[in-house]
Each structure stands twice: as structure tokens, then as C-alpha cells.
Fold this sequence. Notes:
The protein has 155 residues and is mainly alpha-helical. The chain contains five helices and no strands.
Amino acid sequence: MKLIAGSPGTWSGMALRVSQCVFAAASVCAMFTAFGYSNYSAFAYMIAVSTMQFICSLGLACADIFSLRNNKDLHNPRIVGIIVIVDWVMAILIFSGASASASVTILFTRDIHFCRLYTRLACGQFALSVVLAFIVWLLDAASFLSGFWLLISFF
Length: 155
């Protein structure tokens, strides 16, 4: 068994998954509690993608916990291949959602000063949610790269 940091079935892999869950949930909560988020499709898309990320990361974290608790080996080319594909797709989705939400947030705060005109909008919470979503993307990219490294080491 290769010991690659962040690979499935390791303590570092479980830490990455749990971190993804925590930051995705925090991003959703920050956006969901902000006034006016539902009027903009980029924010709704980011909430949907962050929720999907939370569910996928929670499932993979449970698989890591099961593997560590029962001394099962997840380093099978098929299993790792599926995990790598899921990480790759989720990384693309979370990056697109965070980028779209970041562009709307920058438009509101810096370009047209929409947040100054409508003080009820929680632009600070929008920005916080976007930053948390980008952290989720970085963690997901790290999971993808470690899984991909493990996958190519099989061949």
C-alpha cells in the first residue's frame, strides 16, 4: 500500500474530507443567512454546488472512517478511480460556483456600489461565503491531486 498524503483510507485523507465538509457547510450557512441571496442565480448555484460538495465529502469521509476503523484498504484502482472522478467533477463545479459568486460580489461592492445603495444586502456575508467556497475548492483540488497521484502509481 502506497502512503500518499491525502489519499483515500488515510488519516490525512479523512482530515481533507472533514475539512471540505466543514467549509462547505460554513459557506452554505453564510450565504443562506444573508438577506437577498435568492434574487441572484450565481448565489443559488453556489449554494447548490456547496451542498452537493458537502454530501459527497461526507460520504467519502464516512468511507475513510470505515476504512481506518476496520483496517480495510481503499487503494484499489477501481475505487480510487471513482473517487478521483468525483473529486475532479466536484472541483470543477465548486470552482465555477465560487467564481460566479465572486464576480457578482465584486460587481456589487466595487463596480456599481450596489451595497452602498441597498444597505439591507449582506455583501460582507456574500464575500465570506465566496472565500469559504474557494477554500473548499483548494481542499478538493488537494484531494484530487493526491488521489490522482495514487491512481497513476498503480500503472
